[in-house]
């Protein structure tokens, strides 16, 4: 029985949306449960969590700057202050369990809970664990992971292979194909490429696509292109210059289930949440890992699929030269498409959220 739970972390959608999915599953099972989120002031979670209908409090915490910066001088003070704030929150709220999903706020919150004897659970989204979660796992009761062979980072006896929580509307897409084609005004006579670089977009992917629009047009490839808000206007201008190219441009796609349903192949960054969705969708994918993330974990996420012949990889550095060419080659190879689709779908964990909440239930007892 779950009565009171704290979920802590955030910073990016890859941390926030799994956290909200966990909260939604808890609420579905235990409508009377009280859920409190603990995030970092000024970060994305302070906006997204209330929009999802949950209460959140913010800690005065920020990350350590990798470059030489005067901001680093205040880092030890912020860590101490945030730990004291988290300790006070836990003392007042009295949770049965504290869940950490990664991000600045999770470290002081889970540390404070563990020192008070409250069971903690870590939800690690990536195939390569960060230093913070490795340290926190020493006191955690359970570590829910999205990839196998994670005992190289965490104590084996604490590991539960659950997968990552994802949105439920992408579970069954086959019957949505016609609706998706109508929504995006596409024909079923030509293949569809879905290009996505996250809510902020991915410059390399966008520039690679821009440079290859003429080739995509010559090959009669339809494109659903999520550019992110910063590249949207430029992309519109480029598409207008290729008026006969069937390219639909969006700064952000709300109806991702329809975008996935319409797609024949997908180009994507290799964030943990994106990869978990791609596995469930079961479509052939070309991954372009972002080089601007901690410990290059997107490349490691991508390699975990590539090593199983479940996706193709184009390094960010080479994308402008090879991404569109590799995409056209894949679109012309139906046998390879089928192989990639079958292999990536085998890695799907459709019951991830339910599995994580079952582990929370055990700790709550």
Write a structural description.
With 365 residues, the protein is an alpha/beta fold. The chain folds into 2 domains: 4-164 and 351-364, Glycogen Phosphorylase B (Rossmann fold), CATH 3.40.50.2000; 169-345, Glycogen Phosphorylase B (Rossmann fold). The protein is built from 15 helices and 13 strands. The chain has helices at 13-29, 45-51, 75-93, 106-115, 131-136, 177-183, 203-211, 213-218, 232-240, 256-262, 272-281, 297-306, 319-331, 334-345, 352-364; strands at 4-8, 34-40, 55-59, 97-100, 120-124, 142-145, 159-161, 192-196, 222-226, 247-250, 265-268, 285-287, 312-313. The strands form 2 sheets. The chain has a 7-stranded parallel sheet with strand order 3-2-1-4-5-6-7, sandwiched between helices. Strand 1, helix 1 and strand 2 form a beta-alpha-beta unit.
When the domains are counted, the total is 2
Strand order of the largest sheet: 3-2-1-4-5-6-7
- Low-pLDDT runs of 5+ residues are none
Helix content: 40-55%
CATH architecture of the largest domain: 3-Layer(aba) Sandwich
Name of the top-level CATH class of the largest domain: Alpha Beta
Q: What's the shape?
A: elongated
What are the secondary-structure elements, in order, as H or E? EHEHEHEHEHEEHEHHEHEHEHEHEHHH
Supply the number of helical segments.
15
Average pLDDT, to the nearest integer? Answer: 91
Say how many strands there are.
Answer: 13
The CA-CA distance between the termini, in Å, is: 7 Å
CATH topology of the largest domain: Rossmann fold
The assigned structural class equals alpha/beta
Oligomer: single chain
Strand content: 15-25%
CATH superfamily of the largest domain: Glycogen Phosphorylase B
Radius of gyration: 21 Å
The biggest beta sheet, please? 7 strands, parallel
């Amino acid at each position: 029985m779950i009565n009171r739970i704290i979920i802590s972390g955030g910073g990016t959608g890859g941390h926030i949306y799994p956290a909200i999915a966990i909260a939604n599953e808890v609420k579905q099972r235990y409508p009377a449960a009280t859920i409190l989120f603990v995030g970092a002031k000024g970060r994305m979670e302070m906006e997204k969590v209330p929009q999802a209908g949950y209460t959140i409090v913010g800690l005065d915490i920020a990350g350590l700057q990798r470059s030489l910066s005067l901001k680093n001088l205040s880092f030890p003070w912020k860590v101490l202050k945030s730990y004291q704030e988290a300790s006070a929150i836990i003392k007042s709220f009295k949770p049965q369990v504290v869940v950490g999903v990664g991000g600045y706020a999770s470290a002081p919150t889970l540390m404070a809970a563990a020192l008070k004897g409250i069971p903690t659970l870590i939800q690690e989204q990536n195939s390569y664990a960060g230093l913070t979660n490795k340290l926190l796992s020493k006191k955690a009761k359970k570590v829910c992971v999205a990839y196998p062979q994670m005992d190289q980072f965490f104590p084996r006896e604490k590991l539960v292979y659950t997968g990552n929580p994802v949105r439920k509307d992408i579970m069954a897409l086959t019957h949505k194909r016609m609706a998706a084609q109508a929504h995006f005004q596409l024909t079923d006579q030509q293949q569809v490429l879905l290009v996505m670089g996250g809510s902020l977009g991915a410059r390399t992917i966008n520039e690679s696509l821009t440079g290859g629009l003429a080739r995509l047009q010559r090959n009669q490839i339809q494109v659903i292109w999520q550019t992110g808000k910063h590249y949207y206007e430029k992309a519109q201008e480029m598409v207008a210059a290729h008026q006969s190219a069937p390219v639909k441009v969006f700064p952000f796609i709300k109806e991702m289930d329809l975008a996935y349903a319409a797609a024949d192949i997908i180009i994507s960054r290799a964030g943990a949440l994106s990869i978990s969705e791609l596995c469930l969708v079961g479509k052939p994918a070309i991954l372009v890992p972002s080089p601007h993330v901690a410990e290059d974990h997107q490349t490691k996420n991508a390699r975990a699929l590539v090593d199983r012949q479940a996706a193709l990889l184009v390094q960010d550095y080479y994308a402008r030269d090879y991404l569109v060419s590799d995409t056209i080659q894949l679109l012309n190879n139906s046998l390879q498409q089928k192989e990639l689709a079958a292999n990536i779908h085998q890695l799907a964990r459709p019951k991830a959220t339910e599995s994580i909440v079952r582990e929370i239930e055990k700790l709550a007892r």
